Amino acid sequence: MFATALKSNQTIESIPKDLFNAIETLKKELNAIILAHYYQEPDIQDIADYIGDSLGLSQKAASTDADVIVFAGVHFMAETAKILNPNKLVLLPDLEAGCSLADSCPPEEFAKFKAAHPDHLVVSYINCSAGIKALSDIICTSSNSVKIVNQIPRDQRIIFAPDKNLGRYVMEQTGRDLVLWQGTCMVHEIFSEKKIVQLQVQHPEAEVIAHPECETSILRHANYIGSTTALLKYCQESTSPEFIVATESGILHQMEKQAPNKTFIPAPPEGNCACNECPHMRLNTLEKLYLSMKNRTPEITMPEDIRVAALKPIQKMLEISAR
Ligand code: 13P
Ligand code: SF4
């Protein structure tokens, strides 16, 4: 399992008051780039050199000439950066920042599932471990999954893993029959359909926008469905003054920055919890980001044979996305 980033001997005294400045200084010293996902806390988004969705982040990781990549996201994202950059130091501020969706698909079980479906091509959502990527033919993200499946010949049978909700959405959009691994994201499966409908009644001008990791019961109320970057773009372009946002609530920071005159309402979860915040993403903090750069750890590593096998399907995705 992963080790934690903040060891008990790393006391609060060793953290400077002006973290923003200290991080900027370390960035220059290390020739580092900070890549952040939209689900990171606002301070991290504000200090990042690049903020994006999973596709944008992997494209940036593939093209950067920095020596060190500091990945403010979750493990599978930093792992993808390392697969693309074996000779760079890739840091993840908290190695415990995993993903329930990636965890729902262990490579040993998936290898059996794949063996039970011979003649199937494996398309895997990027939210999976390097071990699953190594067993896949093409990787996709939420922004290119439909495009990727559409370019596969129609008579080719396909396994889609690990997200059954995204898989179902791709089936609807492409009219294809996919064999789905039954994984889900713990954040996107908790939205309350009833509360969203109540919000629509209270805010008749609001549009519902949703990430395709949401369940069908939520997606059927959506005026627009897309990846985090696509949702952000939609909010800027739509004439609607209000949005009910069915994805991790961290993205509201960018939405409010980019469209300050509009109102963004986070879609409520079933219970009275903050379950629309990803507990894995939120393990990263500005303090841990600083410490990871100062100590050049925790570093992402993996066996070379897995890295090489995982690289091919990622490269295929990047090639198709560039067309
Ligand atoms: P995107 O970044 O592709 O929108 O996916 C969201 C997500 O769940 C990342 O963990
Ligand atoms: Fe994984 Fe869901 Fe968190 Fe994204 S939001 S990192 S899919 S648990």
Could you write a compact summary of the structure shown?
It is built from 15 helices and 12 strands. It has helices spanning 19-30, 42-47, 54-63, 75-84, 100-103, 107-115, 130-134, 145-150, 164-174, 193-202, 216-219, 228-237, 252-258, 286-295, 304-322; strands at residues 32-37, 50-52, 68-72, 89-91, 120-125, 138-140, 157-161, 178-180, 207-210, 224-225, 242-246, 263-266.
Fill in the keyword field for this structure.
Rossmann fold; globular; 4-stranded parallel β-sheet; 12 strands; binds 1,3-dihydroxyacetonephosphate; 15 helices; disordered N terminus; 323 residues; binds iron/sulfur cluster; alpha/beta; 3 domains
Could you walk me through the main structural features you see in this protein, from its secondary elements to its overall organization?
The protein has 323 residues and is an alpha/beta fold. It folds into 3 domains: 108 residues, Rossmann fold; 98 residues, 3-Layer(aba) Sandwich (Rossmann fold); 74 residues, Rossmann fold, CATH 3.40.50.10800. The strands form 3 sheets. The chain has a 4-stranded parallel beta sheet with strand order 2-1-3-4, sandwiched between helices. Helix 1 packs parallel to helix 14 and helix 3 runs parallel beside helix 4. The site of iron/sulfur cluster has 13 residues, from helix 5.
